[in-house]
């Protein structure tokens, strides 16, 4: 179990993006964390101090960033990913996972990566952070949750399928895939969010949840039966529900998390409701992982205008999860 007195590791992400300028701003989170990356990438004037022993408290002066040093091979140019740095970005993630899994950190919070840059520079074979983290954890079954932090009732969404083309969704959304997403979400809501009897809403795949077969048959052919079977086990489930009526406030008050059929069905509502306060959480890992719900923003990198609200929320959520575990 993670020790909440240990720091969260904040991985550097793509150094040509907004990650380095978000790290010192994230001190406003008020929770112990260390930045894992190359300190030369931090904004000019950043006050930082190198740390080596994560088991000891971080007795740093207020406003000084704790840095777990990981030097990169090439200089950083904001807005232009350097191919020679791609492998170092990947290595930072792996190093953070090693530290978390060995009990030297309370969890990890990952700043955004640029998948194209990693693929071009280092042949990165994974669609994103989530899949790579699952690989590092030995092939763990995971799902991605996006959780709001500033809206009431909260919006927590889990897409059962993630980074695939829309035309692939009906083929890849199988009873096994949806059941796995529901079970992982249920367990994580209890363990990491402190909800003893989580209520989970399940979105249908088709418009109006198929409208009794008029707009698609997945809901009739297998989704209803799967949900009924899980209810018989004691799961508090509702659905399959029309996705277009699931996310206004009165609807969200009736459940604790929503499991959706595909990426945009889940992410559009939360990014509309809580764009700056949304947090990406990987459920099902043997360690805690959160991330801000935005990308590298190469177009504004280095200008000092990046909004740190999401990374602050992600660090606080990781710290809270460590306390609950």
UniProtKB/TrEMBL annotation:
Family matches, as InterPro entries: PdxA, PdxA_fam
UniProt xrefs under SUPFAM superfamilies: Isocitrate/Isopropylmalate dehydrogenase-like
Cofactor: Zn(2+); Mg(2+); Co(2+)
A Pfam family: PdxA
Pathway: Cofactor biosynthesis; pyridoxine 5'-phosphate biosynthesis; pyridoxine 5'-phosphate from D-erythrose 4-phosphate: step 4/5
NAD is among the record's keywords: yes
Catalytic reaction equation(s): 4-(phosphooxy)-L-threonine + NAD(+) = 3-amino-2-oxopropyl phosphate + CO2 + NADH
Subunit structure as annotated in this protein's UniProt entry: Homodimer.
Biological role: Catalyzes the NAD(P)-dependent oxidation of 4-(phosphooxy)-L-threonine (HTP) into 2-amino-3-oxo-4-(phosphooxy)butyric acid which spontaneously decarboxylates to form 3-amino-2-oxopropyl phosphate (AHAP).
Protein name per the record: 4-hydroxythreonine-4-phosphate dehydrogenase
Lineage of origin: Bacteria, Pseudomonadati, Pseudomonadota, Alphaproteobacteria, Rhodobacterales
